[in-house]
Design brief:
Mean pLDDT: 96
Strand content: 15-25%
Structural class: alpha+beta
Strand order of the largest sheet: 5-10-7-11-4-3-9-8
Number of strands: 20
Number of helices: 13
Largest sheet: 8 strands, mixed
Distance between the termini: 23 Å
């Protein structure tokens, strides 16, 4: 059964949390991070994107970058300040975006359960990104960016969370992007009860977002353990920061695609190739609606493409819209064999909307855009249960969790 344990959280003062909290490192590039952190020395982007305080063009994997991250972390701990709770707690974390609220529990997950499969994954990880996150965590000796888990909801857990939310929040602020964040510290006794409920009633966690953070945490626990195997299984280095949400709380947005060329085809030849396996008709806009079809934007026009073949007869992975697009369009027609590495394709999070797809194609930087239906939570969990791996860039979760609100030292 899945563990979600209380820990000595490292938190900013309530009057400083809005300055400290920052978007995750992997949703902004260096320039965007620098702009967001401008004029705010307490922004956690100084920790998660330390290159913003270094010479332009620095190798992001240079050892000096990780030293800079540690120096920023130590400085913010002094100046915010960040204070470690004396007791071990779980924390309720609520995010509200565009009138929609989702609530999860901040706790410490088990690296051993990640390795054993109790924490289930649906994506492959890249070695370079694992290495980067492992070096970052080891430099800080702290998990400062939470992994994002989901689980099949349990009424008893929901009831405890709702009771906590009926009390005054420890943190309550609206971030510059308009998302409201509220956090409650759960008492030590209730934290212990809540942890016991998870271990009794939640058989597995599913990684919604944060595969590289989770993989790095598993590697960190191995690096920190004594080489003779005499380590304490309850040592803090064997656990890592997560926020676990019941599946009913979450919404997945699409993850769209843009492609730079038509692989040497003119538009007529491309449309003829596409028409062999899809019914293609003009569309008014880029909104896809139900799964089982996608839209594309080419030469100033939207089209709806519906497979001529029976998707219901395909397997759990092959029936995903991203798989259909990859196997029947991107690879055979546009020549994109591995979308993880091919420079001819880019991925656009659904939060940017279909207007961003139009902008990118109309700019001339890309030739064609594909607007995808969103994967469902049930699809994600079923794929993870089957031990399968989703196509890259299949899911986009909003709102994004914030770094620096609660950290887990080890």
């Amino acid at each position: 059964m899945a563990k979600l344990l209380a820990f000595h959280g490292l938190l900013p003062r309530p009057d400083k949390v809005a300055q400290v909290a920052a978007v995750p490192y992997d949703v902004v590039n260096s320039a965007e991070a620098a702009e967001l952190a401008k004029g705010n020395p307490l922004s956690f982007l100084h920790v998660s994107r330390p290159e913003i305080d270094m010479a332009p063009g620095i190798d992001l994997y240079d050892e000096s970058v990780y030293r800079q991250s540690r120096e920023a972390f130590d400085r913010i701990r002094r100046e915010a300040p960040l204070v470690e709770d004396e007791g071990k707690h779980l924390y309720v974390y609520e995010l509200t975006m565009n009138g929609r609220t989702q609530t999860g529990i901040i706790g410490a997950a088990s690296a051993a359960e990640y390795r054993s499969g109790i924490i289930k994954r649906h994506e492959k990880t890249r070695q370079d990104k694992e290495d980067d996150r492992t070096r970052q965590v080891m430099a800080l000796r702290s998990h400062t960016g939470p992994a994002f888990f989901t689980y099949r909801g349990v009424k008893d857990i929901d009831d405890m969370v709702n009771a906590v939310k009926a009390t005054p929040a420890l943190f309550d602020f609206v971030a510059p992007d308009g998302i409201r964040h509220r956090v409650w510290r759960i008492s030590e006794s209730d934290s212990a009860r809540l942890s016991a409920l998870f271990e009794a009633k939640v058989p597995v966690f599913y990684i919604a977002d944060g595969h590289h953070r989770s993989a790095a945490a598993a590697r960190t626990s191995v690096e920190c353990a004594p080489k003779d195997g005499s380590g304490n299984p309850d040592a803090e280095y064997n656990f890592f920061l997560t926020v676990a949400f019941p599946a009913s709380e979450l919404a997945i947005l699409p993850y769209n695609r843009v492609v730079r060329t038509l692989n040497g085809l003119d538009e007529q030849a491309f449309m003829e190739r596409l028409a062999k396996e899809f019914v293609v008709v003009p569309a008014a806009d880029g909104e896809t609606g139900a799964p089982g079809r996608f839209k594309m934007y080419l030469s100033g026009k939207w089209y709806l493409a519906t497979p001529k073949f029976d998707i219901s007869k395909l397997g759990v992975i092959d029936s995903l819209d991203a798989s259909v697009l990859q196997q029947h369009v991107l690879s055979p027609i546009l020549g994109i064999g591995d979308p993880r590495t091919d420079k001819n394709i880019d991925f656009i999070g659904g939060i940017r909307g279909t207007k961003e797809l139009v902008r990118l194609v109309d700019s001339g930087d890309f030739k064609i855009a594909f607007s995808m239906p969103a994967v469902t939570i049930d699809q994600l969990m079923n794929i993870a249960d089957a031990g399968e791996i989703m196509p890259p860039k299949s899911t986009w979760f909003e709102p994004k969790l914030r770094d620096g609100i609660v950290s887990h030292n080890f």
